[in-house]
Every structure is written in C-alpha cells, then in structure tokens.
UniProtKB/TrEMBL annotation, chain A:
GO terms assigned for molecular function: 3'-5' exonuclease activity; DNA-directed DNA polymerase activity
Entry's EC annotation: 2.7.7.7
Species classification: Bacteria, Bacillati, Bacillota, Bacilli, Bacillales
SUPFAM superfamilies referenced in this protein's UniProt entry, alphabetically: P-loop containing nucleoside triphosphate hydrolases
Keywords from the UniProt entry: Nucleotidyltransferase, Transferase
GO BP term (any one): DNA-templated DNA replication
Residue ranges annotated for the AAA+ ATPase domain, each copy included: 27-169
Name of the molecule in the record: DNA polymerase III subunit delta
Automatic annotation (TrEMBL), chain B:
Record-level Gene Ontology MF annotations: 3'-5' exonuclease activity; DNA binding; DNA-directed DNA polymerase activity
Gene Ontology process terms (BP): DNA strand elongation involved in DNA replication
Pfam families: DNA_pol3_beta, DNA_pol3_beta_2, DNA_pol3_beta_3
DNA polymerase III beta sliding clamp C-terminal domain sequence ranges: 256-378
Taxonomy, superkingdom: Bacteria
Primary localisation category: cytoplasm
Boundaries of every DNA polymerase III beta sliding clamp central domain copy: 136-253
Cited SMART domains: POL3Bc (SM00480)
Designated name of the protein: Beta sliding clamp
Keywords: Cytoplasm, DNA replication, DNA-binding, DNA-directed DNA polymerase, Nucleotidyltransferase, Transferase
Record text on subunit structure and interactions: Forms a ring-shaped head-to-tail homodimer around DNA.
Length: 328, 380
C-alpha cells in the first residue's frame, strides 16, 4: 500500500499530473500507464482506483483505511475489476466477461473501474473487443491499463487513453540500497538491471537457480568462442533443462543481452557501465572474439529471440536459432 | 461473535444461500458465506455479484427459540467446507464462535472444527431496503409472471439489454415484457398500491436472475415484497431476501411494435393447435429455422404444414372455431409458437394476423393480460 507521497519520490511528474487531475475533479475515462518493471505501475493504478471510490479523500490522497480502500487493496472490491494475462495472453473471453459485467449495474455504486495489467498481452481479438467500450464508455466507467511497452498496444486503443509515462528508476539508488543490504557490488549491479526492484533483487540473491543460471550463461559464451560444435548440444542437454519455462528463459536471454551490451561497452571504452563486473576477463576475451559489428548483430538477434518467445514460438527453436546466430 | 443455533435450520439456510455462490467468481471474497449475528437472529449471505441471497434465522419464532447466547459480530467462512461440516455434525445444535483473528470455531458434541475465516468488512455491501419504493405480490402470481415472460429473453449477448425482462408500472398496471427481437412476451397485471411514492419505469431484470428466483420461491399464497433501489432489485419473503443487479441501459420501446388492427382473426382450441404444431415441427427440426407453414382454408379449417425435401413432409388439419377476415399463408418458427402456446392455460386462443410479412399476436380468449407476439419467417 503506497501513498501518492511515497510514489512522488520516484515519479514526481506522473504524480503531479494525476494528483492535480484528482484535485480538480478532471479524471479521464481511460488511462494507459507505461513504465518499466518496478516503476510502480501497480501502485499508481491502485491509487487511481481508490480516488474514484474513497469518500474520505484529503486533497488527492485517499484515506487507505475506509472499507472501499481496504477492499481495493485486497482485490475484493465488487466494482473494481482486475484483468491480468491468463497464461501468455489476455484472451477474448476475459474481455467478454468484462463486457458482460458492464451491462449490469454496479453492485454498490454506479461507479466502475477496471484495471488491465500487461495490456500489451491482449490478443488482437481481445483488444478489438475492448476498443468498443473504451470508445463509448457507459456513464461512470474508468479504464486503467498498464504496460511495459505502450507501443505494443494497438494504436486505436492508445489514442483513446490518456498516456501516463512513468520514468525509469534511478539505477544507482537501487544499487546502493542493495549494497547496503550486504550484497557485493557485482551482484548488486546485475540484480539492479535485471529486476529494477529491491524485493525481487533480494530474492534473486537467495536463489540457487539463478546462481546456476549465471554459470550456464558464462559456459555458453565460452563454448561459443572455443568449441562451437558442442554449443547446440549444450543447449539441448543443459540450457533448456535449466531454463525450463518461458519466464526463466527470458531471464536467461536478458543475461545474454547484458553480456553483449558489456562487450559493446568495452569496444567503445565505456568501462564504468559494465554489468558483469566479476567476469571482466571473460568479457575482454569476448570483445576480442566478436567485433563491434558482430556484437551489434548479436544484440539484435537476442532482442528478436525475446520477442519470438513472447509470441509463443517454441523455446527450443528460439534458443537453437539464437545459438546459430551467435556463432561468428 | 458467538451463538448456538439449531442445526437443521442452519443447514436449510446454508442450502438457500449456496444457490447464489458460484465457484467461478472474480472477487475472492465471494467464494465465502457471510454470517452475521445480530440481536434479532442470524443472517447468512451468499453472492456471485449478479445475484445475492440472504437467509435469516430469527432468534425466536412462534415461541420456539432457534438461536441462543448471541454475541453480535460477523465473519466470512469458506463455502467449500462450511456446509459439509455443518451437515455432518453429531448433535442437533451447533455452537459457532469467532475470535478477532478471524478464526471460526465450530462446536457440536465432541467435535471441534477450527476454520480460517475472512473479515466481513471485505464482503460487498448489499443495499438496505428502501421501503418507499416497494410493493407486494402473491408468490404464485410472481411465478406466473416470470414463467410467462422469461422464456422470450435473448440468449445472445449482442444486445445485452434484451437478455433481461423489462418491468414497468403504468396506470396501476404492472407490465413484464421480454423480447429477443424475433418474438415478444408480455404479461400485465393490475396492481393497486396505496403507495404514491412508488415510482419506477424501465427496470430491466436479467433473465437468468428471474429464472433462478423462480426456482427458489415456493408456489403458494404467501406474499413477496419487491423493492427497487438504484442499482438492485430486492425480492423479500419472510426469511429470505433475493437481490439481483439490474441491466444497465434503456429498454427499447415495445408498445409500438404491437399492431392495433388485424386482417385475419383465428379463434381455436389451444391444445389442439399446440399439438398440431408440435407434430409438424418434428420434420421441421432438420430445417434451419424450425419453420412451419400455416394456411387458412374454407370451413374454418387451418392447414399447418412443413416440408423438408430430404426427409419428407407433413400436413396437419386443425378445425377452428372461427376464422374471420382475409385468407392467409404465413410461415413462422414452430419453436416460438410452441413456447408461446405452452404458457397459455386458457382453453381457447385468439390469433390476430395482419398479413404474411407482419408480426402476429397470440392472446388467450377473453384475457387481455397475456400477449405473445411472433415475427413471421420469409420463405420463397
């Protein structure tokens, strides 16, 4: 449970925009909140929802203690509907359910709010269905959509929402906070770029799976440089066993991405930016092996792989293709 | 909260409220039953957010004490386990105690259950009864109203407002109308209330809720109180409250659809016509629209026929009481016709046609309260 004041320290501009709107009673019917992982999209959407229902607001700040606020926090408010991806995407049926819900009167009041998290995961069908009642909302309905990538959302939806962009977190702050918690500088930096979130970073630190994953990643890089023939076998025998679901594989791809970013930093002499500080020697070797052009191509390949993974391409195929692309 | 209650009463109440609880709800708290103890008795609530059912166990009824040792309070218990526990307890009475950590203790004889409950504050707030906007009906009359209209609501969600039954009060007449845009069912009853405050029009009650309500209320002479609030409707019998949300939007104006003059009027026995159409529809079933053809003949004869080339054809002759007006050939859906005739209890019906391409009206003879309207099907 966060207050506007707490959010304001990270997101001063977004907070100003929204609190001003609440105070002047000029809330729009649809918001699209865009920001990277850990930037507080959820907290902002909950606060916005509260501002529609809370009866004891002081200025723009909801009371956080009335029945409405408490139930919005616990997800039990009957007139606030949450939609999140079921599996890999938000399906047509989920939007249909929402639509049905909106043909009924509210349970307690006539105000209704729906929050769609990861709105970019809507299937085209779902998005087009949603469009219909984003366009012509019934009297007191508000939509809050959150996403990490506003450009992955249909133009037609984006143009009907008020866009609230949350700015990326200041990574230095998080890194320092993690070091304060007793993490090594190397780990702190890696976790910071991977998670953007204090709690998640601390969890990764305790995670055996992640330690093993990092080892595998370094092994893969080495194998690509010295023993290319074995690389595909390694993917089959070890990599895919360890990164067994899509979420895990995404972390794996993210690590590869940051590795090659480091290689690039070395090429352009931006040594302060390195993420894998503890593997400096390995990165230098990589930089000798792959030229600047190679690295650029690989970076593109990794990003494409990540996109394919989101689009439900088979993980094995994604990894095999990427491995082939990473060979010089 | 603490109370001791007769177990069979509690079981009965649980059975009532369980009808509203669905396993597929979006709000986690609705998987539970809310139990509320006040100084007058115990109230149980179940809801799937579309409908909510409240069942009340009074502390004392006809001199019999049902609930004892009440300490007020409320809690939400999981509907998955609570009913089975209560049903299988050994004694005739149950003691239920909660603590401030939302732990529920159920005691009966030697058995003792501890269940994790949830804070009742999290449960949706159901509107309190507005006495200004309410009226009374007899149970059996309400059931009749529902039965005679609800079958005609639309089952597709393309026009959500049509999935409900429109309730209207005009000139001391209560009017229920349902339509799926191919047919329309309407039932009027006179309603005299002393209540001048009573004011609503364009209330649309979801067809599903009415069907559910029809199952719950008993078919007897007792009265049921109906109250309309801003966004819900409440049906209240002695110890049972049934709440339903309403459909949002304006119901289409239906009165203009009903033709006020007719070119052909047929007066016939309900049952005979129903059976003839039912038989004719046997072969029509294969057909896409379930279409049967009706034709007027001389000597007050009606011919009902259906022809499916792959299967065969059927012709039914019905002797009617009178046929007045122009000759007529018309096709319509047998299903709609059967639905409409089924709810007419009177022996004779009057059917008024205004041409082969215009909707026609079915009414029981000498009864202006029931009206069924069906759109014909165009055939070539």
């Amino acid at each position: 449970m966060k207050t506007w004041n707490e959010i304001a320290s990270n997101q001063p501009i977004a907070t100003r925009i929204l609190t001003n709107m609440i105070e002047r009673n000029r809330l729009s019917h649809a918001y699209l909140i865009q920001g990277q992982k850990g930037t507080g999209k959820k907290a902002v959407s909950i606060l916005l929802a509260k501002s529609f229902f809370c009866k004891n607001q002081i200025g723009s700040e909801p009371c956080h203690s009335c029945k409405d606020c408490v139930r919005i926090d616990s997800g039990n408010h009957p007139d606030v509907h949450h939609i999140a991806p079921e599996g890999a995407s938000i399906k047509k049926e989920q939007i249909a359910h929402l639509q049905k819900e909106f043909t009924y009167t509210g349970l307690e009041s006539n105000q209704k709010v729906y929050i769609i998290t990861e709105a970019d995961k809507m299937t085209t069908n779902a998005a087009n269905r949603l469009l219909k009642f984003l366009e012509e909302p019934s009297k007191k309905t508000a939509a809050i959509l959150t996403t990490e990538n506003a450009h992955a959302i249909l133009d037609t939806i984006r143009s009907r929402c008020q866009l609230i962009a949350l700015r990326p977190l200041n990574t230095n702050q998080l890194e320092l906070a993690l070091i304060e918690k007793g993490l090594s500088k190397e780990n702190a930096r890696l976790f910071t770029v991977l998670t953007n979130d204090l709690q998640a970073a601390l969890a990764l630190d305790q995670d055996d799976w992640f330690a093993q994953a990092r080892k595998l990643m370094v092994q893969l890089i080495e194998m690509l440089q010295t023993n290319i023939e074995e690389a595909l076998l390694f993917i089959q025998k070890q990599w895919l066993l360890h990164f067994s679901d899509r979420e895990q594989l995404k972390i794996g791809l993210d690590m590869l991405l940051y590795w090659y970013k480091d290689v690039m930093y070395l090429h352009i002499d931006e040594n302060d930016q390195l993420v894998f500080l503890s593997y400096r020697e390995n990165i230098e070797k990589s930089a000798m092996y792959w030229s600047k052009q190679d690295t650029t191509a690989i970076l593109y390949a990794i990003m494409e792989a990540r996109r394919h993974l989101e689009q439900n391409v088979h993980p094995t195929l994604v990894m095999e293709k990427l491995t082939l692309q990473m060979q010089r | 909260m603490r109370f001791v209650v007769q177990r069979d009463l509690l079981i009965e109440s649980i059975q009532h409220v369980m009808k509203a609880i669905s396993s597929r709800v979006t709000i986690p708290i609705l998987t539970g039953i809310k139990i509320e103890a006040s100084k007058d008795g115990i109230k149980l609530t179940g809801s799937d957010s579309d409908i909510s059912i409240e069942s009340f166990i009074p502390k004392e009824e006809d001199g019999i004490i049902n609930v004892e040792e009440i300490e007020t309070g409320s809690i939400v218990v999981q509907a998955k386990y609570f009913p089975d526990i209560i049903r299988k307890l050994p004694l005739k009475t149950v003691e239920i105690v909660t603590d401030d950590q939302f732990q529920v203790t159920i005691l009966s004889g030697g058995s003792e259950f501890h269940l994790n409950g949830q804070d009742a504050v999290e449960y949706p707030q159901l509107p309190v009864l507005h006495t200004d906007n309410s009226f009374e009906l007899k149970n059996d009359l309400l059931k009749e109203l529902i039965r005679q209209t609800v079958f005609a609501v639309s089952t597709v969600e393309t026009r959500p407002i049509l999935t409900g039954v429109n309730m209207r009060l005009e000139n001391d007449q209560l009017d229920f109308v349902a339509t799926d845009s191919h047919r329309l069912a309407s039932r009027k009853i006179p309603l005299s209330t002393e209540n001048d405050q009573l004011d609503f029009d364009n209330i649309v009650i979801p067809g599903k809720s009415l069907a559910e309500l029809n199952k719950i209320i008993d078919d007897n002479e007792e009265t049921i109180m109906i109250s309309v609030t801003e966004n819900q409707i409440l049906f209240q019998t002695k110890n049972l409250y049934f709440l339903s949300r309403l459909l949002d939007g304006n119901y289409p104006e239906t009165s203009r659809l009903i033709p006020d003059q007719s070119k052909t009027t047929v007066l016939t026995k309900t049952k005979e016509l129903l059976q003839a159409i039912d038989r004719a529809s046997l072969l029509a079933k294969e057909n896409r629209n379930n279409v049967v053809k009706l034709q007027t003949k001389a000597n007050n004869q009606l011919e009902i026929s259906s022809n499916t080339p792959e299967v065969g054809q059927v012709t039914e002759e019905v002797t009617t009481d009178t046929i007045e007006g122009e000759e007529l050939k018309i096709s319509f859906s047998a299903k709609y016709m059967i639905d409409a005739l089924k709810i007419i209890q009177e022996d004779r019906v009057k059917i008024e046609f205004t041409g082969a391409m215009r909707p026609f009206i079915i009414r029981p003879m000498d009864n202006e309260q029931i009206l069924q309207l069906i759109l014909p099907v165009r055939t070539y």
